[in-house]
Structure formats: structure tokens, C-alpha cells
Amino acid sequence: MSRERNEDPTGVPSREDTVRPEADEETEGFAPWRRIVRAFEMLRGTSLEVVNYDPTVHGPVVNFEGLGGYEEVERYWLNAPFAFVSINYDPEGSAHLYYVVEPELNEAEYELLETLFEDIRDPLIYRDDFSERQIDIEATLKEGLEDHLERYGVDVDLNTFYRLFYYLYRSFRGFGKLDPIMHDPHVEDVSCDGYDLPIFVYHDEHTDIETNVSFTQQELDDFVVRLAQQSGRHISIGEPLVETTLPDGSRAELALGKEVTPRGSAFTVRKYSDEPFTPIDLLEYGTFDVEQMAYLWLCIEHNRSLIFAGGTASGKTTSMNAVSMFIPPRAKVLSIEDTRELSLYHDNWLSSVTRERIHEGSDITMYDLLRSALRHRPEYIIVGEVRGEEAITLFQAMNTGHTTYSTMHADSVRTTINRLENEPINVPRAMVQSLDVLCVQQLTRLEGERVRRNKSVAEIEGIDQRTGELDYSTAFTWDADEDTFNSSGSEVLKEIRDDEGWSQGELLSELRDRRRVLRYLWDRGVTDYRRFTAMINEYYADSETVMTMIEEDEPSVGLAGSD
Description:
The chain has 21 helices and 20 strands. It is α/β, with parallel strands linked by helices. It has a 9-stranded mixed sheet.
């Protein structure tokens, strides 16, 4: 492969990954141009009529007979009908293997693919509409592949045509070697720790698992550079660390070379979900219970500020994004993030992201964005994570009547408060008391499985006049032994009751109605964020009609009187 092709890591796959060995030994010693000529001679024939591929008619493009010494646990498509995964268990090593299966190419097909990629790439990437994604890349690649095969005087069967097309498409619009894994909805994180080391994934059922995918030194260096470039960021030996958001929305941490990562370039990709989690998903996974979720709904509707705290991968951002679906439909929302993770199904939402200095420009920090945000007169401000000077502005916004949500890295209520009050955040204690609710989440193990649970919901009550310390009470706690949530009463709900002029009975009725709506949606598996948000918006528009509909429908599913 030429040097130029090596510089495009998501281009032609390496021969070791795709070539199906041939019995004919005459290929040994051929120069590259001679092998290409031979490939053309082998494949020459009549023209091909390209039709939509149907495996039942045209035969499979991928074959797999299993791995010796392993027990296959399951297999499923990643990108049907081109790639699937076979998850295997090694009894001797007591470990699982995530084995990616893609189409195989023989020597002639591989040489043809090299030439096709070279000839198709340049005309395509220099098209004005290519960079703007205005073209149908799939149709354009099929057309280009067909045209070039005719130009070469090469004829292939439909099976071979689509194997070639798969790798071309994977190169231009996919993630190269990583592409099949990025299609797996069961994989949350993908990590590569260095040269020639197996990639590991975090699978929602099998947890951390090794794969059969790895990168050579040149492949990995080029791949990391390519990911940074696709995200509009610069990475180099001089600036070897980059945190960015990939074009599909996934979050990536990149490291180039061996200066900071001695085993070589590395990356971790936290995959972006096309369908954001809803409060029903959080109930289904046991992160919260219905009573907590109804409580959060009422707090959000009545403009109480929240922070979600927890360790890495505890689900802080996921929970904040999910409960943001309770924001009233006409309220103006503004979000601020370092790397884009939030996805709100809200019409009046302005999203903003920080930016590093470009050429003669200047950095645009979270602090800059937050100051600008206040001039947009938002009702709700969502900050991806507070960890510096922007926290003071965020709490100033709370003090001036803005409802704010954010996340922090902390494992307890007291740790969160200490982090807010000390370096490098340094929010004055008098300002911290403007925070209403603090949810602390954790990633833990339950019956051998990793689960996320909301460990506690605390309410900030103000400064104790006797001790000068910040007081807080706990509204909900998680019982790890029973895997249940316990309620301890809420001062915030009493404040909402008094602000709205409700009686205690009216407050309890409001909470009961919200619990019934949530149970109704949960029972019917309404996890699609569009359907969920539509139901919440209907409730805001006419709660009596929604409750009447639920009451009429409840007896048929056995929910009557459940609350």
C-alpha cells in the first residue's frame, strides 16, 4: 500500500483484516501493478446490473464457522448484512471475546479495492456538496464503484460488488476498523490502549470485554489524527491530548504518540445514543423509582435548581438529560458544554459549546458562554459540568432567579459541597445555599452486574447560624441491601406547596397524578423520547384530560388503584 493511502486510516482495510488466502501460489513475488493487472484479468467479463442486495437471492457476503476452543454465547448483526459480532466464552481463560466478523476479500479483490479507493476518493472529497453532506453518499459510492469497474473493464458478481462497496462506504462515512463496533447498540464505550493491543468495549450485558480488533502503529496514529480532524480539532506531538465530540455525537478522548501514553496512541470513545434516555428508561434500569421521578418532575416544573453528582460513568449526564424532558414546552432553555452530550427534545433550546483558539482568535470558555447566556434571558440553564470559574456565574444565575442544572464529579453530598466551596471552584457558601436539590449517583455492582443507582437526593437548607456550616437534609436514600429507595420527607415540596397556595392534600394529589402518568408510560414501554415528551406536554396543556384518559385505560392493564 502506498504511503499516501496509509495516511488515510479509515481507508482501505489492511490485508490481514480482509484477505481470504488463495490456493494459487503464482501471486507470490508479483509487483503491485502486476497483481492489479492479474486481478483485472481474473474478473473481466460482462457488465454488471446493480440491484438492491438480497442475501436470500444473491448469497451471503459474510461467512463465519466459529472459533475453535471457544463457546459461542450469542451473535447478532451490527451492520446487516455485512458485519456481525460473535460473542464467545473461553472456558480455560474464563473470559469473553467480542469477535467482529466482516466480509473477506481474496487477493485479487483486495488489490482491486486499493485501486478503487484511490480513484474514487479524490473526485469525491473535492466535490463542494460532499463536505456539506448534501449528497446521498451511499448512492454516489455505488454509482462511482459501478462506473470505475466499467472503466477498468472489470466485471464482478453482485456478491463481490457489495463486499467492495461495504469497505468503500466504511472508509468514507464510517469509522474504519471501528465501524462495526460503533454500530452496536449494546456497546457504551470503546477503548484502545496502544499499538497492536486489542480494543476493549464495555458491553451492557458482558461488561468489559476484549475484541479481535487492533491497530498497528501507523494505523493507530493516523486514525487518532483523523478522528481529531473530523471533529474540527487539532492534535499533534506538541499538543497530544484532545477531548472532542465526533461527527455522530460520540464523545472522544484522544492521545497521540508515546509522550503521554507510553504504549502508543490511544483513544476512548463514549458512544452517543441516537435515542436519548427518558425518565422511563431510568425507571426501567432502576436508577430512580417512580416516587423520586415524580418529585423531580414537580421540582423542575416549579423552577428548582439541581446538580447531579457522581463518579465516572455513574450516569450523571444521562439523568440530567432525561429529567430535562420535564421542562415546560414553551420555556426557553440554554445549554453550555465542553463537548456536546446533551440532546433535548425541546423547541425553544439554544445549544452552545466551548471552542479552543483558532489561528488569531481566542478561546471561548464555559465562563464566556455562561455570561453570554444570561443576555439571552433563558428560563433554564443547563451546564454540562461545573469545575472552575464558571460555577460562580452559574450560582449567580441561581441567585437572580434562573433555574440551573449541572453535573459534578463527587461521590457524596458532603464531597460535592466541599468541592463547590474550595479550589478551584470557590463558590462562596452564601451562594451555594441557592442550590435546591442535589442528586448523588453511583456505578455499583448488584448480583454480579454493574448498575447505576441514585444513592441519595439531598435538599440544601441554608447556613446553620450556630455552626456556620451549610445544612442539608436527605429526601430519598437508596438501600443497597434491598435495592429499594426510602423517602424521608421534603422541605422543597413544602416550599412549592406554599408558593402555589396549595393545601397539603392538593400537593399530594399533584404528586399522585405524576406518579400515575409515569407508571402508565412505564407499563406501556414508552421509552421513545418523542412519545414521552408529547405526553408530558399534553399533561401541561390539559392535565385533567390526560388523567381521565389514564383512568379509563387503567383497568385494562390492572393499574387501577395502584397509587
